[in-house]
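Lecture notes, continued. The same structure-token format from the folding unit now serves as the input rather than the output. Read the line below as a description of shape only.
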């Protein structure tokens, strides 16, 4: 398939085969454009249906050949109906991306991005990360026998994610600084180390992540939801959903597009602020702070794409206090059995807020993206007292520990 790279800012285009992360004209980010003129849902659907669910089910709409895919079985995650968001008339769902191989949506992007790195003959990969990108890249690099370097804010990453990256063989560098500091130097460090950058500024990552939109469409019975609510850090994922749904429209699968809601934490909300204050540019937050460490980001690399996607979709942005995020995380686990990490639960918290305010029409289909598994970030849950009652290994003692209740 014919692919080209297009600058998100000045619109310059470059050949798809070029190994570029930034526009040669203005230095801003790039996205891949695929020539979909010959593609239609009718012609693609039989092949899609003959394959198991997952990212590579949609190989005709991916920019790298699938024959040498570096894969761990990513994608194909459940779309679970949930009743906790709002009135019974609402059709609310969680897209449970915690089911991916390393426990977050990042795997969708890494299978494509690392496949691209191998095709380019690269031997080393690198990323800046709040944790999930690091854990995912390290796994796919191990799978492809590539060296992996990850730059993380020291002390700012959940233990589960660090454990993953470490065991998967990555060299983990803990910077005395923020994620934004790590992001600011990743391209230059990559040059020095001759490493391939796999942050979401890499357009191949976004191509893998857009497959979540295709899955949602199929899981809803070939229907586009009315709303997609997504936590926003760098903004790559929300932009990826938008690209996926737009491509579905291009291939004639739908004439509707969802409205997108980007959710940030109050202490790290440069994108939400720009939307809420109707500004053209974001104002970076110098010291971002939130319990949702995965989205503790003050200067999002993909802000232009994300702000544009929210505006084009006639969408909304929200910034929520940590307490609302943790409350949604807890209620989702307790009432629905879905354990997400705090950053992921931000989408639920956002949808709950909007449902309460009456934003969603009766019968609307609302998809909340659950971006990562709760076990990734157990500290957040363990901040509460964990109620473990000691007992002797006898039934009588167990019953006594339960307060005599049966
Ligand atoms: N949710 C989780 C669990 C994440 O790990 C991230 C990003 C996001 C949401 C936001 O996604 O950046 O595409 O807007 N984590 C990155 C990382 C920054 O390094 O793991 P985004």
């Amino acid at each position: 398939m014919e692919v080209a790279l297009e600058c998100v800012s000045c619109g310059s285009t470059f050949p798809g085969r070029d190994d570029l992360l930034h526009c040669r004209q203005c230095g801003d980010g790039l996205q891949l454009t695929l020539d979909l003129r010959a593609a239609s849902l009718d012609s693609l659907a039989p092949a899609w249906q003959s394959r198991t669910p997952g990212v590579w089910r949609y190989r005709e709409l991916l920019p790298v050949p699938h024959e040498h895919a570096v894969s761990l079985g990513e994608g194909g995650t459940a779309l679970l109906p949930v009743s906790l968001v709002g009135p019974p008339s609402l059709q609310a769902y969680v897209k449970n991306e915690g089911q991916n191989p390393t426990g977050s949506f990042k795997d969708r992007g890494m299978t494509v991005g690392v496949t691209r790195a191998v095709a380019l003959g690269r031997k080393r990969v690198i990323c800046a990360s709040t944790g999930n990108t690091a854990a995912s890249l390290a796994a796919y690099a191990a799978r492809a026998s590539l060296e992996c370097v990850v730059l993380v804010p020291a002390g700012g990453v959940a233990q589960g994610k660090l454990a993953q990256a470490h065991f998967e063989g990555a060299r983990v560098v803990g910077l005395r600084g923020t994620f934004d500091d790590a992001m600011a130097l990743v391209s230059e460090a990559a040059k020095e180390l001759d490493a391939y950058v796999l942050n979401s500024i890499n357009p191949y990552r976004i191509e893998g992540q857009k497959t979540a939109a295709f899955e949602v469409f199929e899981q809803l019975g070939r229907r586009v939801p009315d709303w997609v609510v997504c936590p926003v850090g760098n903004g790559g994922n929300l932009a990826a959903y938008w690209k996926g749904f737009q491509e579905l429209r291009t291939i004639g699968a739908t004439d509707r597009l969802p409205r997108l809601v980007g959710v940030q934490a109050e202490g790290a909300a440069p994108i939400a602020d720009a939307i809420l204050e109707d500004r053209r540019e974001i104002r970076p937050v110098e010291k971002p702070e939130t319990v949702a460490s995965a989205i503790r980001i003050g200067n999002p690399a993909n802000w232009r794409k994300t702000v544009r996607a929210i505006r084009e979709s006639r969408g909304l942005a929200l910034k929520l206090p940590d307490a609302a995020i943790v409350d949604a995380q807890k209620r989702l686990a307790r009432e629905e059995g879905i354990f997400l990490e705090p950053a992921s639960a931000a989408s639920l918290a956002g949808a709950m807020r909007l449902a309460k305010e009456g934003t969603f029409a009766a019968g609307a289909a609302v998809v909340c993206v659950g971006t990562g598994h709760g076990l990734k970030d157990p500290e957040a849950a363990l901040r509460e007292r964990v109620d473990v009652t000691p007992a002797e290994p006898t039934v009588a003692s167990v019953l006594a520990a339960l307060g005599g209740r049966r």
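Point for the exam: DSSP finds 14 helices and 13 strands in the chain.
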